[in-house]
Structure formats: structure tokens, C-alpha cells
Amino acid sequence: MVFRRCASLLLLLSVSEMSSAPAQTVESAIPDSLQPRSPSHSGLSVAFSIVKVAGDEVCFTLTARDRDGNVIADWNTRSEATTLTLLNSTANTDSSARSWNADRKGYTWAAMSSNGQPLAQAAPHEWLLPAAAFDSLGKARICLTDSKAESGVEILVGPAVVYLNQRTDKISFIAGPAADYLVEVTAQVPDRSAVYHERPYEIVVTPRDRYTNTASEAVPTRLLARWPDEMDESLPDLDTVFSRDVTVAGQTSFIIASRFVRELPKDAPQFVIAHRSGDFSISGRSNDYEILSHPPYPFKLLSPMNHRYIRFYPGIPSQFEVFSWEKPLPIQTRSRTSESLDSIIRTGIGHRQIYVDLC
């Protein structure tokens, strides 16, 4: 709603949501209230929260009125553009700036239109409604499409007027049904997509809707690996995920391990695929990752030669033998298991030497 001064008139734009039922004019709104207007709140009506699926259109009617509540029918001939500002939405300012797949709208964005025509955008979350958009009854229909799943979204009609709440009802956009999966492997090596052989590591599986919002529905899911026989489900505290269906609801973490080493460039890397049980059209794939060997490596004696017989003769005190062996560098004693659980495995490393007296 907007109060403007035009000559000696005080003008009001009132806002109401469009639906299949006749639209009701709302002179003002009290956010977060669920009670109807009472006589003690003269001049105020109360906003009811609107819930929409992200990407669905929600429409409102703007009505121009004077200080006495009379409709200004010729608002479209004696007014300038009205500013519409989207509040509490990050759809146009987050890091999602383009589609991740062939769907050209497959990212988070927001747009406004009037009578089917897109409105000019003055800023990432600000649009201009021309006076010509109002009809001969002093009404204009505006529609918002917001593909980001967020709560408390509002449209502020401007310019602002002191002591007057010129906002629409609060809108909650919820995520739609799962359309794909984001599959991430928690790397155990800085700046490298790699984990360690026979050490637990994390995969994070997140079902997402068309616009990359995290879907909260419980989705029956099947996990596959490029080399499934190399996955180890025998170690304690590992999740059994490759031999059965699992349920994924929102961001879900699983701890797994690999039994074989796969190091580039001599080996092909591993990857994990998640898909909805019985429906491979809803799926996602992790990045390729390596399975690295790690200390303790097999003991490598440099000198003397392995299995060599050494004789010491009595009465000769100066006899000695120097032993040397390879010291693996760097020695990796700490590796991250889970980013979401912030857990770290600590491993002690040592070698044992055995001397056998053959006498």
C-alpha cells in the first residue's frame, strides 16, 4: 500500500492476494498475526500467511484510493511508476546464477509481472510498476514468481510512508518434489578430491527440487558405485548403503570405506551415484575421487638386504651393523571423516623389527 500526495489528495494503494475467490482489499497488514481485524485495531486488517511451492506464481491486486477510501479511477493518467521491493528473499543475490542442467530455469531466481508482462527491474530485488498498468477502476494486478524456498517473503510497495505498513502478507515458499540428487564426497586431502584406503569417509546425499532447493520429503534411494565390489561394509561403524535401499530426507550423511587403492594417473577414479528407487530419471552423481594409500606402508628395508644372515664373532667387540629403512613422507596421522559431524580419525604409525637368533 502506498500513500502519495497528489495536489491536495492523499492516495492509497491497497494490496490483496488474487485467488479463485473474489479478491478482498487489504488496507494494511500486521505481519505474523493470525487473528482477524478487531475494532480495537481501527484502520488495520491482519495478514494471513501464504504458502506456495517454490516456482509457483502468487498474485496480488493493487488498488488506488484517496484518504476517504474512494477509488482513484484515473490513477493511470496522473501517477508515476510504483516501486515494488521484494523483502526477505535471496533468490536473486545468492550464488545460484545459472542453471545446472538443460532446464534453463533450473536455479533460484525471482521475477515480477503485471498482466502477463514482465516488469522492469531496477535492482536485484526491486521492480517498477508503470501507472499504465492500472485499469479504469484504479486497480493493477501484479504477480510474483520466486523459486527460492524461503519463509517470510514480502512485497513492499513504495515509496514508503511513515507510520504505514505497506507490505503484502508474508509468503512462505517451500521446496517442490525431488528432481535430482546432489552427491558430495568429503575429501580427506586438502585441495584434492581424494580419500584414504580402508579409512571411513563421508558421502552426503541431498535430494533437490527443480530449482536446487533441498527437498524435505523422505525419498527411497539407491546408491551405486563405479566399482561396487571395492566398497567395504565389514568395518565397524560403517553404513550399509550399497546392498539395500536407504531413505534420504534432506541432507543425509553416510560413512563408507574403500578396500582398494585407486590413484591417478595409473588407476581410474571412483564415483558414487544416487537415484530414486525404481526411477533412474531422478539421480545425481558425485565428482570423481581417488582412493589413496597411506602410512603405515609395507616396511621397506634399505640396508642390509632383507633376509640377510649376519654373523657376530665372539671376542671381537667392534662388530656392528647399520640398519636403514624408508621413512614415508608425509606421514598422515589425521584425516577428516565427516564435514557435517566434524569428526577426525587419528592414527598412530609405527614399525616393528624382529631379530631372530639362529644359534
Q: How does this model look, in words?
A:
- The protein has 359 residues and is mainly beta.
- It has two domains: 172 residues, Immunoglobulin-like (Sandwich); 113 residues, Immunoglobulin-like (Sandwich), CATH 2.60.40.10.
- 0% of the residues lie in helices and 35% in strands.
- The chain contains no helices and 25 strands.
- A six-stranded antiparallel β-sheet has the order 1-2-4-10-6-7, with no helix packed on it. A four-stranded antiparallel β-sheet has the order 8-9-5-11, with no helix packed on it.
- The protein is elongated.
Please name the defining characteristics of this protein.
359 residues; Immunoglobulin-like; 0% helix; 2 domains; 6-stranded antiparallel sheet; 4-stranded antiparallel sheet; mainly beta; disordered N terminus; elongated; 35% strand
How would you briefly describe this protein structure?
The chain has 359 residues and is mostly beta strands. 0% of the residues lie in helices and 35% in strands.
Listing every helix as H and every strand as E from the N terminus to the C terminus, the arrangement reads EEEEEEEEEEEEEEEEEEEEEEEEE
Helical residues, percent: under 10%
Number of strands: 25
CATH architecture of the largest domain: Sandwich
Large-scale geometry: elongated
What Rg is obtained from the alpha carbons, in whole angstroms? 33 Å
The termini sit apart by 102 Å
Strand content: 35-45%
CATH class of the largest domain: Mainly Beta
Structural class determined from secondary elements: mainly beta
Q: What is the residue-mean pLDDT, rounded to a whole number?
A: 79
